[in-house]
């Protein structure tokens, strides 16, 4: 029987995007294994598989060998309910920002409720692109020296993995939750939230909400608002039902068949 720690840890993946140095991949695998986290995902690594990665993984080569390799971040998080982007610089994008402790608590809470969770780390030279950060529900910043805030990639993975471990340890001994909750009450999946955002964008166009202004800024703020709300599947369906009616009324107002 897996423990609550193990059940939740199995739903948390650490995603490294575009890693340049294979040594960092190995060191990250080691960081995960020391903290009891089983899942590493590599998105478009520059130099992998590589001897250096396995050397730096030390005893964690099993975890490294099991790492999934995918071409894009979108594919790596498609089935996730909660995606956190780790950024070396503070407040680069309009995302809710957490310190590692808070981020780990929210991540473990989502995983314990049955959600799939991803913590996403960027490239050594350039971090995560703005498009990649747009796929994240919130950001995490380790409050390092503001004049020198960029940790080595594997060191950042270690800090976050440690915080995840503390939050996971708190589950052991606590009453088990979540596994038998009704699917409607499960956190909405990434794909369903993206479907909702696409329909929201179409609806705002249909009701001429933007009136010639650039739609991007409003959409960014709306994404932030809805992502903060932690919507479940039922709530996403309710919101999409409202949008469908607004779209129908807009068609009628233009003299088109409803
Ligand atoms: N030069 C890059 C830094 C990349 S460091 C930049 O300025 O964005 C590689 C990765 O390690 C980052 O993308 C981030 O995921 C993680 N990282 C490094 N320092 C961090 C910090 N202080 N807080 C959170 N994540 C950090």
TrEMBL record:
Its EC number is 2.1.1.200. SUPFAM superfamilies: alpha/beta knot. It catalyses: cytidine(32) in tRNA + S-adenosyl-L-methionine = 2'-O-methylcytidine(32) in tRNA + S-adenosyl-L-homocysteine + H(+); uridine(32) in tRNA + S-adenosyl-L-methionine = 2'-O-methyluridine(32) in tRNA + S-adenosyl-L-homocysteine + H(+). Belongs to the class IV-like SAM-binding methyltransferase superfamily. RNA methyltransferase TrmH family. The lineage of its organism: Bacteria, Pseudomonadati, Pseudomonadota, Gammaproteobacteria, Lysobacterales. The keyword Transferase applies. Catalyzes the formation of 2'O-methylated cytidine (Cm32) or 2'O-methylated uridine (Um32) at position 32 in tRNA. It is found in: Cytoplasm. Residues 12-162 form the tRNA/rRNA methyltransferase SpoU type domain. Keywords: Cytoplasm, Methyltransferase, S-adenosyl-L-methionine, Transferase, tRNA processing. Its main location: cytoplasm. GO terms for biological process: methylation. Homodimer. It comes from Pseudoxanthomonas putridarboris. One of its GO terms (molecular function) is methyltransferase activity. This is tRNA (cytidine/uridine-2'-O-)-methyltransferase TrmJ.
